[in-house]
Structures are given as C-alpha cells and as structure tokens.
Specification:
With about 180 residues, this protein is of the alpha+beta class. The chain folds into 2 domains: about 100 residues, no CATH class; about 60 residues, Roll (Nuclear Transport Factor 2, Chain: A). The chain is built from 3 helices and 9 strands, in the order H-E-H-E-E-E-E-H-E-E-E-E. A hairpin with a 3-residue loop joins strand 7 and strand 8. The N and C termini lie far apart (about 55 Å).
Length: about 180
C-alpha cells in the first residue's frame, strides 16, 4: 500500500509539473551516475542536470510499482538512453532495474551472497570450481532468460563466471599477486 501511494503521488507530481523542475520527496531522482563499462550501451554518464523535464516515464514508474512491490530506498537515475532504479527488495537484497528511454523494462539485477544461491547452480559451480570461494552472485533477469554472474576466488586467483542455460563461461580471470 505504501509503495502504491508513493507511485500515485509521484505520477501525479510528474503530470502536474510539466517542464518545471520537480522537487518531490516521493521519488529521489539523481541526474547522473557513473556506470560500469558493460552498461555503456544502456547508459551515458553525460551530465543532464541542466535539463528540467519529466524524465521518468510513467510507464517505467508503473512497471516498477508492479515489479518491485516491496522495494525500499529506491533511487532513480536518468541517462540519455533510459533510466535505472536502485533499491532493496523485501529480503534486503540490493537490486537494480533498467528501463529504456520510453520506459520499457530491459532487465533487473539482484546482488546477493552464496547463501542464497540456488542448489542447482551451487552444484554446477561446485563441481567445476572445487577450490574456489563464492563472494557475490549477480542474477540478471532479461525478458526471455536469466544470466548468473558468479564472483569467486581461490588461493591464487579471482574469477568471474557466467552461467546461462546450464552453460558455464569464464568472463574474467586475474592472478593474485603479492606486494613486496
């Protein structure tokens, strides 16, 4: 109910505000943010703070209110190619949802620890990477499939692997070095 109320208030304010600057406590809208290089096709770090437009499409707000019913601490960001919202779900898991510039959903990413890793994924990774310790899992949900990125380390290296459709692919591997 709280999130529904927040959505309705935000939608009303966006409609009324027109092209004037929106200062509402219901949705915190940050103008620019640095994103990892792999998101450059979705976002730009251009400084858009000089523009005063209704930059969160109502379609994105409606979708978010349905998709993340129990979201807390949501923060919206605008890019030239769309929007993203960072938040925590009802289990306290950090999440991010990306939208295109029309407000259409692109993906939702959840970040969590190994204790929440599904049993089938745990057995796939555990059978291949016996000497590794899992640190973080990124679960990326796209419209037609889900991809998992597993961050882990062993005594001599760090490794990030992708699991999609039962296939495991190494994305990044780095050797540990000692500083003398």
């Amino acid at each position: 109910m709280k999130n529904t109320s927040r959505f309705l208030i935000a939608a009303a304010l966006l409609t009324i505000a027109g092209t004037s600057q929106l200062q509402a406590q219901t949705v915190q809208l940050n103008e620019s943010v640095r994103t990892p290089a792999r998101y450059n096709d979705l976002a730009s770090t251009d400084d858009l703070s000089g523009r005063t437009t209704n930059f969160v499409k109502s379609r994105a707000l409606r979708d978010f209110s349905k998709r993340a019913t129990f979201a807390v601490n949501d923060q919206w960001y605008r890019f030239t190619d769309g929007y993203l919202v960072k938040y925590e779900d009802m289990k306290g898991i950090s999440c991010r949802t990306d939208y295109d510039k029309l407000g259409n959903w692109i993906s939702t990413t959840r970040y969590y620890g190994k204790e929440l890793l599904a049993g089938d994924l745990r057995s796939i990774i555990g059978s291949i990477y016996l000497d590794f310790t899992i640190t973080t899992i990124q679960e990326i949900n796209f419209p037609k499939h889900t991809v998992y990125i597993i961050h882990m380390y062993s005594h001599d290296r760090w490794q990030n692997v992708q699991v999609a459709n039962g296939e495991v692919k190494v994305l990044e591997e780095r050797q540990k070095t000692t500083l003398n």
